[in-house]
Amino acid sequence: MASAHAACRNVAGAKSLHPRALVVDSGDVDGLRLVSTDDVTRLVQTHQAEVWRYVRFLGASAELADDLTQDAFLQLLRAPFVERSHQETVGWLRRVVRNLYVKSFRRPPFAVAELDAIESTWDAFAGDDGGAEGLEHLRACVEQLTGRARDAVRLHYHERHSRHAIGEQLGIGEDGVKSLLRRTRALLRECVERRRREGA
Length: 200
Fold this sequence. Notes:
This protein has nine helices and no strands. By secondary structure, the protein is mainly α.
């Protein structure tokens, strides 16, 4: 992920918006004002990591997530936006980056309903800290994986191979890869939830 400093510099120094940028109405509020570049710099430092993690969770590559996160913060300079609570600001940024993600495809390879389901999963995962604790737990759980499960996660989520390519490397069919990934995700979910309970 691009550093907050670099992102602030890119946003503050932008002379024109990214071609994918899209105006998002932040709602009717009395006394609307456009936020300043100083405001945006502070908001980038506060919210960048959570917005980036969120769009990665939706399925964006790291490179695309960098671009979309920067574009989302550019909207603060373009759209009428009033900063309210932390949660309302994050919610606004999430709506913007989600719309940008959908628009990044000529023809999205998913239904919007699928994104709704993913978003509800994100809400449970992110908690109050934007997913920082959950991510640490997930990393620890992935480190505990062994054998084919570990290889499948690496090939699918890190190296972005197709199920067919993964099956060839692991010596199993595509249906076997699908089942392996489903079982592994269930194990990781249980592991994260267990670590959270133990840390509570």
